[in-house]
């Protein structure tokens, strides 16, 4: 399965959304250069307050552009970066990946999937009432489906640009389900 990057974004401040740009630099073990969520230890403010020494497994946020179409169908028009993602993708079912899957972004960068982004109330606060609920669904077995993208850590750094290909580089032999991180 291959896909492509339709947008990249970063923000040096802790704001909900991120600013789209032409390219971002991924740094091994840290995340996106110049992004407030980059670092070896957790950078999300709510987590820093509780466990500041925890390793950062949320260095890069990837979201599938197909979600934007779903949200538009229920009245929410979004642009890349609006949900705080660093990489907006097309053509890969991110939510169906296994934990530990490695994705090559562009020519050099390699990220490893760590889990799901857990939608939070800030989605309603910043996008509009009901937006968070629109990023959730129920599976046939009754379990909750979180559609707000996936999180990853940077294994190998490099520049990532809008239009770059995404290649699935490695899939664990045993499927490890994605859980919120």
Automatic annotation (TrEMBL):
Leader sequence range is none
Q: InterPro entries this protein is in?
A: MoCF_Sase_C, MOSC_domain, Pyrv_Knase-like_insert_dom_sf
SUPFAM superfamilies assigned: PK beta-barrel domain-like
Q: Which Pfam families match?
A: MOSC (PF03473)
Q: The organism sits in which domain of life?
A: Bacteria
Domain MOSC residues, every copy: 19-169
Q: Which GO terms describe its molecular function?
A: catalytic activity; molybdenum ion binding; pyridoxal phosphate binding
**Name recorded for this polypeptide:** MOSC domain-containing protein
Q: Taxonomy-wise, where does this protein's organism fall, top ranks first?
A: Bacteria, Pseudomonadati, Pseudomonadota, Alphaproteobacteria, Sphingomonadales
